[in-house]
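hiii so um. not sure if this is the right channel but i have a protein structure encoded as tokens and i wanna go backwards to a sequence. like what aa goes where. can anyone help
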């Protein structure tokens, strides 16, 4: 074993806790793992880090090292720190969980024998109208993505040739190398993890088995969708490398602002102007809705500005999850007349005079009363 200061190797002090040692090891092991640093210097550093952790993570070995240094492990008849008398077996049990936690990401990248790689997912932003969200619609979009090469049918090999299994990894796409006291598995350097070698690559796709192309795709937008809804089209993403399975297409929906309606969940809101005379005397107004049907709404006499009329079931429909449709809320916007003739002005003055003392304006009178009480509470 190469003589080294295990504490210095891990970058911790001699009084470091077990948690600090484990944390330091994880950080350094990720940094110098051979899969991320394919050079001899990184491999040597990784071996030294592993040997240091193997000793310092074991209380008995650490105590022996603190007292005698690396001499405590000499004479065991085996290389490595403390592998005599069952030392390796004990270390393997304590190290397995750390190895899985650190390097599971590398093993998770493998798919089958490594000959195929799944294509990437594609995102497409689609803006629709509120009417489209209300009724649902079918549309076609054009997406630029990768598709299987037509010349080589996705194999990446030109003409009648075919990819052959890599002789270095026997088609697995991974190779193993002994690193001190354990075995490291990494991508094959000869085929770069593909598991196959193409001696005569296709000129059209340069051996990748796919080319970029714009394609038209039909999309069905369900009724009731909301802002930010994501529609997934399986298999419509990028083609996989060398005939691998394709990725998915994700369509993110956004809604255009509507000139009449505002949406909150399943409910719709609309402001409708009402003539002052209709609000005072009562009447009827026609209210539009997204289903294209005009609905007559009765306005009771004395309707105040801001009053809401609820039209049940006239809101947005439920999505695939089911449930009732939302409601449409119509807010009264009482309109003050403008450009009055002299006769109209005179009539309004007579109306005002005739209504004094009869509480024809409850909101105004209530406000004035509160104002009097407010000013009455003030002191000089």
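sure thing!! here u go:
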């Amino acid at each position: 074993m190469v003589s080294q200061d295990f504490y210095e190797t891990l970058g911790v002090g001699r009084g470091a806790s077990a948690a600090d040692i484990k944390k330091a090891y994880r950080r350094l092991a990720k940094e110098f793992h051979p899969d991320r640093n394919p050079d001899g210097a990184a491999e040597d550093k990784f071996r030294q880090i592993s040997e240091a952790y193997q000793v310092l993570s074991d209380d008995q070995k650490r105590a022996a090292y603190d007292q005698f240094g690396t001499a405590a492990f000499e004479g065991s008849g085996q290389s490595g720190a403390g592998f005599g008398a069952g030392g390796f077996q004990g270390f393997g049990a304590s190290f397995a969980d750390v190895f899985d936690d650190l390097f599971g990401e590398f093993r998770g990248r493998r798919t089958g024998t490594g000959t195929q790689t799944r294509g990437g997912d594609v995102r497409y932003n689609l803006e629709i109208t509120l009417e489209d969200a209300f009724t649902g619609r079918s549309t076609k979009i054009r997406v630029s993505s990768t598709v299987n090469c037509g010349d080589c049918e996705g194999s990446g090999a030109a003409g009648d040739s075919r990819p052959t299994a890599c002789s270095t990894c026997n088609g697995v796409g991974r190779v193993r190398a002994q690193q001190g006291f354990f075995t490291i598995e990494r991508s094959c350097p000869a085929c770069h993890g593909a598991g196959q070698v193409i001696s005569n690559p296709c000129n059209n796709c340069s051996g990748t088995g796919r080319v970029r192309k714009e394609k038209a795709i039909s999309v069905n937008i369900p009724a009731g969708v909301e802002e930010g809804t994501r529609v997934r089209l399986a298999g419509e993403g990028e083609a996989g490398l060398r005939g691998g399975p394709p990725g998915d297409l994700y369509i993110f929906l956004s809604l255009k602002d509507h000139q009449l309606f505002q949406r909150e969940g399943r409910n719709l809101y609309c402001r409708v102007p009402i003539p002052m005379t209709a609000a005072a005397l009562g009447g009827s107004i026609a209210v539009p809705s997204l289903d294209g049907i005009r609905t007559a709404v009765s306005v009771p006499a004395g309707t105040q500005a801001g009053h809401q009329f609820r039209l049940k079931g006239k809101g947005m429909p439920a999505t695939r999850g089911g449930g009732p449709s939302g409601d449409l809320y119509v807010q009264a916007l009482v309109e003050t007349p403008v450009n009055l003739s002299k006769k109209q002005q005179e009539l309004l003055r007579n109306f005002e005079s005739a209504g004094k003392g009869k509480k024809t304006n409850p909101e105004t009178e209530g406000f004035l009363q509160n104002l009097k009480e407010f000013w009455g509470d003030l002191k000089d």
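oh and The chain has three domains: 6-107, 122-163+198-255, 261-374.
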